[in-house]
Amino acid sequence: MKLIIAIVQDEDSADVIEALTEEDYRVTKLATTGGFLKSGNTTLLVGIEEEKVELVIDVIRNVCRKRNETVVTPTTLGGSESGYMQQYPVQISVGGATVFVIDVDKFVKI
Ligand code: 2BA
């Protein structure tokens, strides 16, 4: 058995959970926060037989979109004493999804 850990954007989470449950995959949603943007995202846990891993990833791939976000990076100009901060908006592309697949040593439902 494998555990798929998929970090998706909040905007895609309802659709991807619906698509997974429609296909009879079981999924757990965790509310998480990205370290770089420091904004909310969603982490999905899917426990699945090894031969179905690619099918689950295909569902995630079909739903999750890339989006552009603007981050503002402060830059100090003119040295530390007399310097002033100038802020530059920078575009970054977020998503569609970051997916990890890990081995499950043991799976028990009690
Ligand atoms: P965040 O850490 O908030 O990152 C959001 C987006 O910022 C990333 O999108 C990427 O485009 C950019 N980014 C992140 N770190 C960067 C850096 N050091 N320099 C420049 N740009 C950077 P994604 O790559 O699509 O990642 C979306 C979210 O997935 C991340 O949110 C984080 O929560 C998670 N993630 C991505 N890679 C991960 C990893 N290797 N381990 C754990 N979580 C990861």
TrEMBL record:
Per UniProt, what is one Pfam family of this protein?
CdAMP_rec
Domain of life (superkingdom): Bacteria
State the protein's name. Transcriptional regulator
User: Which taxonomic lineage is given here?
Assistant: Bacteria, Bacillati, Bacillota, Clostridia, Eubacteriales
